[in-house]
Amino acid sequence: MRTIRPLLSIALLAALSACAPVDDQGFSVGNPESCSGVIVAVNYGILGEDSVNECVEFDADEALAADVLAFAGVETVGTDTFGDQVVCRVNGLPSETEELLVPGFDPHLETCEDMPPAHAYWALWVKENPDSPWDYAMDGVGTLMVTPGSSLGLAFSAGDDIEQPSTTP
User: Fold this and answer.
1) Residue 34, number of CB atoms within 10 A of its CB
2) Is 33 within a domain?
3) What's the rounded Cα separation, in Å, for the pair 37 and 27?
């Protein structure tokens, strides 16, 4: 019995640590209203989901956008042709099995094979500081570096409406 208990404790600790998220980049959740890290804002537009507004704090001078998004719970999928340089899907949207209906356009099934259509796409936005305007990112999530005090946004644009993210909680 004595030898089983320590082994059981070790096995239980190993199982629990395998399930716990490992954060080797110093990421933590902050308050979006007083964020000293990066604000992550997602606007789903016509896709109908609630907006995301999170603060990701980190100790480094910069962090990869893909890692910041992932820590904030935002999962992105790129395209077969362009990889993670083009965002095709965010948290499973638009659906890969249901046609997307944009008023004034033919129904579209997003396969993520190539560039999404100009009337239904995810735009990656950056904001240097809280007082700066949103700008289209010049890099994709896999190469874009963000710094504390900046904002990182994804917004789904449909039809003639070019959506921008909102950093208002």
Assistant:
1) 7
2) yes
3) 9
Model-wide pTM > 0.85: no
Domain count, the chain: 1
Q: Give residue for tokens 């990066």.
A: 38
Q: What is the rounded distance in angstroms from the CA atom of residue 84 to the CA atom of residue 140?
A: 6
Instruction: For residue 63, give its domain range.
Output: 27-158
Contact residues for 43 (Cβ-Cβ < 8 A; gap 6+): 51, 153, 154, 155, 156, 163, 164, 165, 166
pLDDT at site 25? 72
Q: How many residues does the chain have?
A: 169
pLDDT at residue 139, rounded to an integer: 97
Tokens for 113, please give them: 């094979």
Per-residue model confidence (pLDDT) at position 9: 35
In a domain, 148, yes or no: yes
Q: Is residue 13 part of a domain?
A: no
Helix extents (H) in 20-108: 65-71
Domain presence at residue 138: yes
Tell me the per-residue pLDDT of 78-134, one tens digit each, with 9 for 90 and over: 999 999 999 999 999 999 999 999 999 999 999 999 999 999 999 999 999 989 999
